[in-house]
Amino acid sequence: MARKISMRQAINEALDQEMARDPNVIVMGEDIVGGAGGEGEEDAWGGVLGVTKGLHAKHKGKLLDTPLSESAYIGAAIGAAACGMRPVAELMFLDFMGVCFDQIFNQAAKFKYMFGGKAETPVVIRAMVGAGFRAAAQHSQMLTPLFVHIPGLKVVCPSNAYDAKGLLIQSIRDNDPVIFCEHKNLYGLETEVPAESYAIPFGEANVVRDGKHATIVTYGMMVHRAMDAAAALAKQGVECEVIDLRTLSPIDWDTVIDSAERTGHVVCVDEANPRCSIASDVSAMITQNCFKALKGPIQMVTAPHTPVPFSPVLEDLYIPSADAIAKAVTRSRAN
Description:
By secondary structure, this protein is of the alpha/beta class. It has 12 helices and 14 strands.
């Protein structure tokens, strides 16, 4: 039975159901419980935005508050995964990946390859991404392209509560390391989510709006901006197809290329910085595979190549807007 819950609740529910199903699933991170062993409330935090709140009481001993050392506990999670556990490690902000990147891209991502397929590392690294939260340049980046570049990692970025639950369950059950990106501005967004457990396969994009005049390819928070742009353009008689990639590695190239060939006009939207972004990757793949079908130049809508500003006015300008997406569709169709 489906009911409306927030993305925060959907992630919490996925963790709850997977810990109940599999004794090897544990959750670790900074302040994911909070208050343990001290005076006052034992489960005081539930993570910086309360995503794991309430799980400690249900799963005693399976939620581990860690020291303030990402290199230590991310490394521990990867080691535990290599030894048969299924850890979910909360990196808090993906911006903090710099202090534990070696463990991720030189160890976890390469174990299976370097040991002839005999070593598996079923670890999930959950982390918040994205701007718009007034959290300044060190807590607001969309660093998804950095992880997509690395063979051996799977990268997920849901745009809604339904996808967040199904994709997180799939991530926990997957035998490869998964970077699970949660846009902090989507935590409160409610959608219909079944109460029962379910998994969404990786590499299957979701066409969230059908259209015949242009294709908008995006993921995460930008799906909602793209839908707003498509609604505005529909009033002008321009019907856009909006594709939510859901997983960035693997990417559902078949759905993207099929749509590009049908519409002939493509706009790639990414909250990340423009150089070597998901937008540039998708643009290149479409050009390589269906250049003759294109009726106009592929457009990219991204953040500028600058750090995320702290100023609210500048931050709002930094994030790609629905208006910028709509104008990009118009530019593509004008050629």
